[in-house]
Amino acid sequence: MIAEEFVRKGMFEDAIRLFDLAGIHEQALRYTSILLSQVVHQANKPGSLRERLQRMALEFTERYAGAEKNCDPPTWSTFTLLKELMIFFDQYHCKNYQPALEVLERTKLVPLKMQDLEACVHNFKRLGGEVCKVIPDLLLATMDIAYCKYKALRGKDVAKFDDAGREQQLNYLREQAKALTNMAATVPYRMPGDTNNRLVQTEILMH
Q: In whole angstroms, how far apart are CA 43 and each of 102, 125, 129, 152, 190?
């Protein structure tokens, strides 16, 4: 009852702790996911809400993994995906692009090549609202990774790559950019602000 009162007052962190103590995993995970969806794309800072939520999410994962989870499968799936996206954005903000892309490969949320597009659009339709909210930032971050890799490859010493090998890599990155812009235009979701324009403009810079 106190946890529900905290929710009504907007005191979600306190509510999450009380739901967890009461063994009501469904509500603890659901409100954790609601908060995570608002901050998951941000850079981690000491003492921030994101850092506190990350610690809480890891704690829940450790404790709930070996126990009977008192929650619906979609709630756990949403929570798990958001936890993976925290890892992605941590790696992205640290410019550790390859580990970040490996996380994306696991999640299957955005396409890294055109042949992945249909599956990613299909997966999108089954996502919880909290994950859907993060997709625009995820698309922009993934596009930024592709563009950074593209610029770095264009600037590399020709001696390290033969022309054919370099062009093959550049074409792969262009295809990745095209897949990302196509996903943004295809999914049944209203992208905020100028997300689509930014994606398209970055893709143009890669030609």
A: 19, 27, 22, 23, 24
> To which residue do tokens 């093959």 refer?
168
Rounded distance between C-alpha atoms, residue 44 and residue 89, angstroms: 9
Q: In 3D, which of 36, 41, 43, 44 has the Cα closest to residue 13?
A: 36
Residue 21 Cα distances to 3, 71, 187, angstroms: 10, 14, 38
Contact 85, 33 (CB under 8 A): no
Give 148-161 pLDDT, tens digit per residue.
999 988 876 555 55
Q: How far apart are CA 188 and CA 206, in angstroms?
A: 26
- Radius of gyration of the chain measured on its C-alpha atoms: 19
Single pTM value for the model: 0.92
Render pLDDT for 173-201 as a digit per residue (tens, 0 to 9). 999 999 999 999 999 888 887 999 999 99
The angle, 0 to 180 degrees and rounded to 10, between the axes of the packed helices 135-155 and 163-186 is: 160
